[in-house]
Each structure stands twice: as C-alpha cells, then as structure tokens.
Amino acid sequence: RNTITPRLVRHFNLLWVPQMSEAAMQGIFGSILSGFLGAHSFPTDVANLASTTVAATIQLYSCMCAEMLPTPSKSHYTFNLRDVSKVVQGLLQITPAKCADAEAFLRLWCHEASRVFSDRLISEADRGWFSTKVSEILHGATGREWPAELFPSLMYGSYMHASDGVANAPYEQLEVAATSTKLDDALSDYNMATTKPMNLVFFRDACHHLARISRVITQPRGCALLVGMGGSGRSSLVRLACAMWEYQCFSIEITRTYDEAAWHDDLKRFMFHAGCKGKPCVLLFSDTQIVKESFVEDINNLLNAGEVPNMMAEEDMSQILNDVRPLAKAAGKGETKDAIYAHFVTLVRQNLHIVLAMSPVGDAFRTRCRMFPSLVNCCTIDWYDAWPRDALLSVAERYFESIDLGGNDVKASIAETVVDMQSSVLQTSDTFFAELRRKTYVTPTSYLELLNLYTSMLAEQREVVARKISHYSGGVRKLVETNAVVDKMKEELTNLQPVLKKAAEDTQTLLKQVAEDQASAEEVKARVKKEEAEVAVISKEAGEIAADAQRDLDEAMPAFHSAVKALKSLNKSDIQEMKAYKQPPELVQLVLEAVCILLGKKPSWDEAKKLMSDMGFLQSLQDFDKDNIEPKKIKSIQKYVQNESFQADTVGKVSKAAKSLCLWVRAMDTYDRVAKTVEPKKAKLAEAKAKLSEAEAMLKEKQAMLADVEARVRGLRETLETTQSKARELEEQEKDTKVKLARADKLVGGLGSEKTRWEALCKSLEEGQRNLVGNMVVCSGAIAYQGPFTASYRAKLNAAWVSKVKSLGMACADNPTVGNVLGDPVIVREWGIHG
Fold first, then answer.
1. How many CA atoms lie within 13 Å of 215's alpha carbon, on the beta-carbon side?
2. 224-227 and 248-250 as β-strands: parallel, antiparallel, unpaired?
3. Rounded Cα distance, 151 and 121, in Å
4. Is the pTM of this model over 0.85?
C-alpha cells in the first residue's frame, strides 16, 4: 500500500470512520428482517428467529474476518458489511408458503450464508472449516445440532418457475434431479432459438452453479464474480440462466481494431438498455476480453457507483434526459437534470447485472482484486473447482451416446478410462511441479479436448484403417484375379487361331462371289440403259403428236366456247324478236337457214319459226353433238359460211340474237374442220401411247431385275464388310491379348513377392482395427495432456493408461504411441528427407 506522507496530511482534517459495531449491525439488520417477517405474516416460530439469525450472521461474519485472511493464493478473502447485507437480502426472498416452520427458515439461512461466504472459498479444507463453524454457531444460537455435511447440498432458487417472472417466481428449496430435468428442457429451448447451440451436461456441480448465478441476477443490484479454469462452463451457464429469465445477455466482440472508444460505445449501449428502457439485462465480461486494464477500471466504477465518470457526451446526456424523464416522474423523482440522471444511475445499478468470468491462473487475478476492490466487494463470488469424478463421468457418457464403440459396456469402460486419465494427469502435474518446479494446469477444457479428440480421431482412424485394409486386400485380390485372367487370355488366344483362319477363308469366298455378281449387274445395267434411251425417243414422239393435236383443238375450242357463251346470253325476248319477223332481213334468214340445216330441218323461214317456238331451242344448240356432225350438213352450210356477209359483226347490226346464232354456226363449222384434222393425229397418238406403255413395261421389268441384282450385290458387299470387320476385330483382339499377356506376365512377375507382404499387412491392420478403440483413447490422452511433460513422465502416463484399458477388458496394443498408431511411414520418411 502507498504511504500517505505527513506533507500531504497536513493540508487535511482527518476523520477516522471505525467499523460498525456488532450492536449497530444487530439493530439495523434485525429491524429489517423482523419487519419483513412480521409484515408478511410468517409463523411465530419463524418470526422469533429474526434476531437469532442476524446475530448468527454477524458472528459468522466476524469469524470469517478473523480466520479467513487473504493470502497471495486467496487474495479475494476480504469481507465487509455488504456480505452481511447479502445474507439478509437472500432471507428476504422467501415467502410464507415456502417457509412453513423454523427448520425451513434455518435451512434457508444456512444456504444464504453458504452462498455469500462459502462459495468464494477455494479449497475443501476451507469449506469444511466453514461448514463446521456454521454448525457450531447454529448449535450455540438455537440448540440444534445439524451435521456439517448437510450444508453443501442445500440449494434454493426460483428458476423452476422462471416463466412467471422474477416478481412472481417463488424462492424455494430445490432437488438436483428435478433441477437437471428443468435445465435440460431450458437448454433445448435455448438451442432452438439460437444460432450457436450449446452441448451441456447438468451434473450436480453444474446445477448448483446455475442456481447461484440465477440467484444473483434476479436480485436488485446483483452482480457475480465467477472464478474458475477455462472450460468449466461459466459463460455457458450464464447464457442459459439469462435465457431462462428472458434477460438480454450482452457481451463484447473483440476485434483487431477494438479500442477504448469501442468499449465505451458498448458500455453506453448496455447502460441505455438497463437505464433508459428499464429492462433487466446481464453484462458477461471475461478476463480474455480485457484488451486494456482501463476496461477493468470502468467495470469497477460501474460496480461501485453505477456509472463511468466522464463517459457520457452531450448527445448521450440528451438521450438519457429524454428517455428517463417519464420513468423518473412516475417514480416520484424531480425533473431536474441531476435528479433524472441520478434516477438513471439507480436504474442501471438495479437492472444491469454484471457477471465477471475470470481465471485464477497466474498473478493477473490477484493483482486485479487488489487494484479494483469492487470486483470483490460488490460481487457475489462463486469459485469453480475442478470437475469431480461424477461430473467427468457424466460428460463422457453424454459425449459417447451417439458413437459406435462396440456396445454399452465398452462405452462405460471408455468413460471410466478418460476419467482416470484426467485424475492421473492432475496427480502427475503435482509431482511434476514438486520435482521440477514447472507448473502444468489441467483444466476442464483439456478434458473436453480429450473427448473431442477421441471421437474425431477414432472416426478418422476407422476410416483410414478400413481404407488401408481395403487397399491391401484389394491388391491381393487383384493379383489372384490377374493370374486367373492371364490363364483365361492364354486359352482365348489358343481358341482364336482357327476362328481367324475360318474368317479369312470366308472373306475370300465372299470377294469372289461379289465380283461375279457385280459383272452380271453391269451387263443388266447396260441393257436397261439402252432400253431407257429407246423409251425416251418413243415418249418424245408421243409428246409431239399430242402437242400438235392440242394446238388444233386450241384453235377451235375458243370459238365454240364463245358461241356457247353468246347462246347463254340470249333470252326468250331475243328469240321472240326474231320470230316476230313476217319477212325477216336477209342476213337473219341466212343464219336461221344454216341453223336449220345443222339441226336437220328444212332450210326455210317457216321451219325456222317452228324451231324458235320450241322451248328447248337454245338448250338444244348448247347440247349439240359437235363431234358427230354429218359431212352432208357441213357441206350444205358452206355456201352460208363462205358468204362475206355471214359474219357475226355484220349480222349483229341487224339482230343480236342472229349474231349469237351466227357465231354458233361458224363455231360448228370450225370445230368440225379441226376435228377432221385432229382425228388421225389422235389415232396416231393412241398408237404411240400404246407402244410407249409396252416399252415402259419392259423397261420396268428390266429395272426391277437390275434392282434385284444390285440389292444382292449390296447385300454381299455388306456381308463382306461385316466379315472383314470381324476379321480385323479378331486380329486386333489377338494383338491386344498378346500385349495384355506380356504386361500381365511383367505385373505378376514383379508383384509376386508383394502378395506375401500385403497379406501380412492386412493381418496387422485387422489386428490394429480390433485394438483401435483402446489404442485411440491412449493416443488422444497423449495429445491432450502430455505436451508439457518430459519423456519419462509421458512414458509413466502411457503405461498407466494402457494398464487401465487392459484391466477393463478392452483390446489394446502393448505400447500404443502417437507415432506408431497415427504415423504414416511414407509421410514420416518425407519429413526425414526434408530435414
């Protein structure tokens, strides 16, 4: 401690504040407790214990201050008046329903005293002294003789009814079995709601630690200091407790650029949540997150005063004033700036529960306890011991639940083995320190690392060994199969010779047959080509005749169609017009006489009038058989047709109907003249077509014959190609078989000696596979624990572990080391090559 010099003291008036007397403490805390018990209508025998329990608490506090003095390894063994108040505060949590008699109240007092005083003790000896002292004080105050072994098993809490809220959840005595079930359910709910699930085992100590954390964070201004080795479950239990009470659990994220400004920003965020929103929350802070020692100083200020001096900027103060003013007004506080800020600090102290997780290893914890006393004075301390045997066994059994180890008996044996490994390493580390003065820490993290290593390495080595066995046994099998294949190829090569000879003979026969058929096909093809030329000439002549006849017809047909069209244009009135002539014009009479001649009537006007009187006159002209006109009629109408006035245009000037009839007469004359010219041509055309049909029939027959011959030739060629392809394939097969035989002879000859070695390796690997479960537990322990030890200590540990494994009936090699079990000779040789 720094000495205050007289030069400094002379400037001040010194006031010494002595420690509060026991009578004063009895009066204060007795009044508080008796008032609480009376106001809540507790039974009389319970209410009468108020002054007794306060006196016992003060006596216990005095004994702790006198006997449990701080040392370098027990730097947190400092006690003050806050400890007495914490015991009384714990008693005030009980309700009449959960405290029916004086026995229940005394059990509660023993529990609260243990939480405040005993939980910080670091050794079983100190805790035994405490339990004995509580038993003595209890006997002296109440006359009751309770065994000292009763106190460590007492457990109270309200988290069994956490869903009812902090205010409504009853504070009651708990049993480990029921608590474990409740915590398993809470862990399942937590893992379903988070992206970082936890795998926890709730053994007895874990249940007690979680109950202590829950007790602290549900008390106003409750803060905790959890002291234990890494991996003991401090942070996990805090997060689970927060989840059960639906508290926000804050923690900082350390990055490379995390500095004091970022730390203050995070602190503001936590304080605003607790003070401005008025919601309970937990700040989980670990010693691994201490980037600068100033972080711990800020935590010390928060614990002691509820604020960090000079941290709030103007805009932060404005936010605090705006958000907290309604809360301060509702609480009956003033609305001045100082009053509102004071209420903000009060809310922060009530709602922000700081939980510190620190490790006792080294000098850092002792130094911080000395430099920052609020870490001890303002926190309820919970010291985490090394996991007991039942805890180690429970964790191992949980880890091995889903792993195939060959049966439940083997799992139980492996679990017992890893527990003994942890214990043996703890003993060896003590011996190591005593003999060589080198300290080795064995933490729960080491044990968890052992379990993780074992499960992962066992799975990996099972795969590696199975792959090697498959590799070598596959090599032996391949050699056997290769020998069989070589014998089969030799047999196939012998059987292939006559097949090759027969294929060559068949090819020659087919070549000769194809040549003969090809020559025959060429002869037929030449004849067909000649006949095709002749048919083409005949076809050309027939076409010319048909074209000539068609030209003649094209001359007559337009006139005929024109005449028919003109006839169709006539109607009854046109005919009546001509019939009305008594003495027709000369041209009209000429036209009608010509019509009468063609229709076989007498060429006179009277006969013409009779014809025109017929209703079917015009239709008979349209249906007139133009192809069979008698030559006599054609001859008779020549004098009319050759008359220069007998023209349609000339006649049309006299009569429209006569014009149409004139056109018809001239069309019949033209058609008959053309038909006589075309008829011989039609006969000649018919003769040419008949000749063409006969020639085409003969040509078709020859073409069919040619197609048959060509199809036969194609079939023979395809057969020849198939035969030649088959012959080539057989030749390639023979060549390939010879090459394979040569290579197989080299392979079998070269690897013949390897077969024996591979079979021996397979046998060795199969034996290693049987010993794998035992070998891997020894190797995992070597990797997890033996690093800090020298060779002689490693050998002793290995021998002890192998003896333990074999004593439990598990298969194991005589000396399974990391090198001979996990090492690969090829890789080790490469390491040697590279130095």
1. 32
2. unpaired
3. 14
4. no
